[in-house]
Design brief:
Structural class: mainly alpha
Number of helices: 15
Mean pLDDT: 89
Length: 278
């Protein structure tokens, strides 16, 4: 099914077809010159299916088409824009995803007061902009590269604060803040990467966070700390690493160290196919 298009799946799954039909029925409520509310609903439905099937490119492309159609309307479709940006990120189109997340941040901050009433949009946009900024290829200008990474750290800190204000659990905030460790690694600030990882790890061990700790501690010569983190990583199944995305976040300097970590993970024999967009 992961190779099927959204339309093919809708033809095969009665519940999905019923949902699609309901979205199309909303066309009757579209005002002249405006996009049907069903267009946004259809795009979000496509995104839900893409998530369930680990983001097939064909279905993510349909999410993008729905987002572009909805953007022609009078109201900025924030939820669908963020869904499309997530699809772009998961399918390896990092520069496009970063631009989309950045556009969403700009709209949240300036354009639509109705959107500002939903802080979950803000932290999703900030988190996405920061995570894709870290995953972009290194800039030749080292100063510009450092500025980009420090801006990503600030975005993630702000996203964590907004998540807290919105009543998210500490575990959800942890999932935002752990990405800061990758920025510290890319900056070469190994002590900050290790200490940040240890602080975030106090709540709940996470595969990405422990990977950053392992790499930073090894580079600092703190092999006991690295071995402890490495031992904890053995409890994670390989799919938990989302390794295609992690490889982009680590960048060329540290990417080679990931394979040894993955070789010791549970289900290490599960080897994914080629990373999309690579």
């Amino acid at each position: 099914q992961a190779k099927a298009s959204f339309d093919q799946l809708a033809a095969q799954v009665p519940a999905l077809k019923d949902a699609v039909d309901k979205m199309h029925a909303l066309d009757a409520f579209a005002k002249p010159g405006q996009v049907s509310p069903g267009q946004t609903g259809l795009g979000l439905l496509q995104f839900t299916v893409a998530q369930r099937l680990s983001y097939p490119v064909a279905i993510c492309d349909q999410v993008g088409a729905s987002a572009r159609a909805a953007l022609a309307g009078a109201t900025y479709p924030m939820r669908l824009v963020l869904a499309d940006a997530d699809c772009l990120r998961k399918t390896g189109r990092i520069a496009e995803a970063n631009a989309q997340f950045s556009d969403a941040v700009a709209h949240y901050e300036k354009d639509d007061p109705r959107v500002r009433q939903a802080p979950e949009f803000a932290y999703r946009a900030l988190r996405g902009r920061a995570t894709t900024a870290i995953a972009l290829p290194d800039l030749p200008d080292k100063k510009a590269e450092a500025e980009r990474l420090r801006a990503a750290i600030q975005d993630l800190q702000a996203a964590g604060q907004l998540s807290r204000v919105n009543g998210e659990t500490p575990a959800q905030q942890q999932g935002i803040l752990e990405n800061i460790g990758f920025a510290y690694l890319r900056l070469g600030e190994l002590r900050e990467a290790l200490e940040h990882g240890q602080k975030v790890d106090q709540l709940n061990p996470l595969a990405w966070n422990l990977t950053v700790q392992t790499i930073a501690a090894d580079a600092l010569g703190e092999h006991g700390v690295a071995d402890d983190a490495r031992e904890k990583l053995k409890a994670f199944r390989r799919p938990a690493f989302s390794e295609c995305e992690m490889r982009r976040l680590l960048g060329p300097r540290y990417i080679g160290q990931l394979d040894a970590i993955l070789a010791n993970a549970l289900d290490a024999d599960i080897v994914p196919g080629a990373c999309p967009g690579s």
